[in-house]
Amino acid sequence: MNVVVLIFLVSSCTIGSQLLLKSGINQIAPVFRQEGVVPFLMSAAMSPWVLGALCLQVLGYVLWFFVLTQARLSVAFAISGSFFYLLMAAASWLVFSEKLNGWQWLGLGMISAGVLIVNLADSARTG
């Protein structure tokens, strides 16, 4: 499988996991405020949302094994980070109605441009 596709899948697992985790934690946040840390952590450990997030993280970690067999870590991690930042911003906007300002979008664009440069430089080096 193409390494960029694998990296996209890893990033998608991470994003899906974070969205599930945020949803689950939002549901049990009152436990923390009303009952404290230990009951909150127990509620989190039994939350289907949190457990689903954990399963997605594990899947992403397993997919990452395959990424590491095909790409240099520095390049794979840079691409993954770019996917993660861009896709998380879009997903947070779609799911939680979170908004980024112009400076934040500019920063995301600059990160993506930097990753593109790293990837192009690596492609030129490896031929």
Automatic annotation (TrEMBL):
Under what name is this protein listed? Answer: EamA domain-containing protein
Going by the entry's taxonomy, the superkingdom of the source organism is recorded as Bacteria
The beginning of the lineage is: Bacteria, Pseudomonadati, Pseudomonadota, Betaproteobacteria, Burkholderiales
PANTHER family according to UniProt: 4-AMINO-4-DEOXY-L-ARABINOSE-PHOSPHOUNDECAPRENOL FLIPPASE SUBUNIT ARNF-RELATED (PTHR30561:SF9), SMR FAMILY PROTON-DEPENDENT DRUG EFFLUX TRANSPORTER SUGE (PTHR30561)
**Keyword line:** Cell membrane, Membrane, Transmembrane, Transmembrane helix
Q: Where in or outside the cell? A: Cell membrane
What InterPro entries does UniProt report for this protein, alphabetically? EmrE-like, Small_drug/metabolite_transptr
Q: What are the transmembrane regions? A: 49-68, 75-96, 102-121
Main location class: membrane
